[in-house]
Design brief:
The chain is an alpha/beta fold. It has helices at 2-12, 50-53, 59-72, 123-130, 136-153, 167-173, 176-193, 218-231, 254-270, 281-305, 339-347, 351-368, 384-387, 390-401, 423-435, 452-457, 467-472, 477-492, 505-514, 531-536, and strands spanning 17-21, 27-32, 74-83, 89-97, 106-112, 157-164, 200-204, 207-213, 240-246, 308-317, 322-332, 378-383, 410-415, 439-445, 462-465, 496-499, 518-519. An 8-stranded mixed beta barrel has the order 10-11-12-13-14-15-16-17, surrounded by 4 helices. Strands 2-1-5-4-3 form a 5-stranded antiparallel beta sheet, with helices on both faces. The protein has a 4-stranded antiparallel beta sheet with strand order 7-8-6-9, sandwiched between helices.
């Protein structure tokens, strides 16, 4: 009895409730706080089953935890949703161990968390969000957090990617009950081995990712999932392939290591069939990670050394044939086109640093020529992803304030390289920028990402029509119809219009006839490093003559 009292005291040093169960979850002993599991004394729980105290959505998951304690001797606390005696679910951390001196018993600790109670009216929604596996977005978010923790706090975590090729086809052939058994079984198992019970995700119908403690081996994962499939009467024709990584190992700092790993996981999640096969998963993922690490290193060096330069291209007022403003475009040393560089910077989350440096470079140039009487306004490209980053916005405001009224010479061209899912939030950001005197242009209207929904949902000053419609409208009735439609919508919304890729006089004439006020393209000038020309010789341009030819 004295030994048990000592054990209880030891458990209470890190928990609110101690429960002893057998391997099937039947409660043999309790001590501590009620934790909202019963109205009466905790001793009244003896003889019941732990699984009956767990929310229905988490029962298979807790069964996995119990099995892991029996198999591994000890597990770290994992987040579990319990069903309170009042019917309101709540979350707590469930940990446990097995003692060789007490065969047949599992000792579990329950620690209440600060997570707010789930209201009955929101419980189904919360269950759908919390008790299945994370989606790709959710998994990416927690992966970034976990790798930084692993590096900064010395946590011994690993990452495993799983490709279960043929899983979806097999599930579709199983009876409904067996198919559900496979899905729930895989979900519960992966959650059960994940760090804190919340670090597993389904990235595609046949692909999973899990952040776990270092004691989890790939072979163990493969065997368990195969067993789940077989127990439901299924058979995988292609088998299971895994790729594992110790998240603490990298030549990069914690933040950049997270970026490289996230980039690899995103590629794995979105790869088309055949890009990651059973034979190529391990080699392909490792090769992609190594490539990402190298590219991030080069990207970081480019940013730190400012190994890029800015070129400027004029946007012309078609009625007066004079320059309305310039667009600042970046060029990277040794790269013929910055498109891949910018896209990769966005993918790995370094676009914020790069965009901030671009802003500073343009403002420094404006400052150098601020005494010129014809100092032009300049548009800079910022992605919607960048603008929705609170950290970037704080830094942006801090930088622009140092330049005073010169900052109002900037226009912001919003580029949408990915579909924006929160138009309202982006619009709030843009209105705050406009309130500070900045004008906003929506770039590439009509392209895949920049949709009519963005036009209606975002209050901006300018809209730039995707150049493919301008070039195509002369010979293609569909492009002409689209162009007319975009012009009509933008005019009704009170937006000033800019036509891109104006390369011949016929393009300019078409835009004028449609009522588009401004144009940009090789007809009026190639991008140039010669900002002094625009600052000192801001004269009218003759159609067809152009302002500048390429000189960079």
């Amino acid at each position: 009895m004295r030994d048990r009292d000592r054990f209880v005291g030891f458990a209470f040093a890190a928990a609110d409730l101690l429960i002893e169960t057998n391997h099937h979850g039947s409660i043999l002993f309790t001590a501590g706080a009620r934790c909202r599991l019963t109205r009466g004394e905790v001793a009244g729980l003896i003889g019941t089953n732990l699984l009956d105290l767990v929310a229905q959505t988490d029962r298979k998951y807790v069964q996995v935890l119990l099995a892991r304690i029996a198999e591994k001797t000890r597990i770290k606390p994992a987040r579990v949703t319990f069903s309170g005696y009042d019917g309101v679910p709540f979350q707590a951390l469930l940990g446990g161990c097995r003692l060789e001196s007490c065969p047949g018993s599992l000792f579990l600790t329950i620690l209440l968390t600060s997570t707010p109670r789930l209201r009955p009216d929101t419980a189904p929604l919360a269950a759908a969000a919390k008790h299945g596996l994370l989606d790709t977005h959710g998994f990416i978010n927690i992966l970034e957090e976990r790798i930084v923790q692993a590096r900064e706090k010395g946590l011994d975590n690993g990452l495993t990617l799983l490709l279960v090729e043929g899983l979806q086809a097999m599930i579709e052939e199983l009876p409904a009950g067996a198919a559900e058994e496979v899905r729930e079984g895989i979900d519960a198992y992966l959650r059960g081995i994940s760090a804190d019970g919340d670090s597993a995700g389904q990235l595609a119908p046949d692909r999973y990712g899990v952040v776990h403690n270092a004691d989890i081996q790939s072979e163990e994962v493969q065997d368990h999932i195969s067993q789940i499939v077989r127990s439901a009467g299924g058979e995988l024709s292609e088998g299971i392939r895994t790729w594992s990584l110790d998240m603490a190992e990298s030549s990069l700092d914690a933040a950049d290591a997270a970026r490289a790993l996230v980039y690899t996981v995103q590629a794995f999640a979105s790869a088309q069939s055949g890009e990651f096969t059973i034979a190529s998963l391990e080699d392909g993922a490792q090769r992609m990670l190594s490539d990402a690490v190298n590219r991030i290193g080069r990207l970081r060096a480019t940013i730190e050394k400012r190994a890029f330069f800015v070129v400027y291209q004029p946007i012309v007022d078609l009625s007066s044939q004079s320059i309305h403003h310039l667009e600042a475009l970046t060029r990277v040393d040794g790269m013929p086109s910055p498109a891949d560089f910018i896209a990769f910077a966005e993918d790995v989350g370094l676009i914020y640093d790069f965009d901030l440096l671009l802003c500073q470079s343009v403002l420094d140039t404006l400052k150098a020529y601020h005494k010129e009487p014809k100092l032009p306004d300049v548009a800079i490209n910022l992605s919607a992803k960048t603008l929705m980053s609170p950290l970037f916005l704080n830094q942006f405001h801090a930088v622009t304030e140092e330049y005073g009224v010169l900052a109002k010479k900037l226009l912001i061209e919003v580029t949408e390289t990915v579909v924006v899912t929160d138009i309202a939030r982006l619009n709030e950001v843009l209105q705050k920028l406009r309130a500070k005197g900045l004008r906003i242009c929506l770039d590439d209207v009509g392209s895949g990402a920049t949709s009519f929904q963005s036009l209606y949902g975002l209050q901006v000053d300018f809209a730039k029509i995707d150049g493919s419609f301008v070039r195509g409208a002369l010979n293609n009735t569909r492009d002409m119809a689209m162009l007319r439609s975009m012009v009509d919508v933008c005019r009704q919304l009170g937006l000033k219009l800019i036509g891109e890729q104006v390369e011949v006089p016929e393009h300019a004439k078409l835009l004028e006839d449609l009522g588009v006020g401004m144009a940009q393209g090789y007809l009026y000038g190639h991008p140039s490093r010669d900002f002094a020309f625009f600052a000192k010789d801001w004269t009218k341009v003759g159609r067809g003559g152009g302002v500048l030819r390429s000189n960079f």
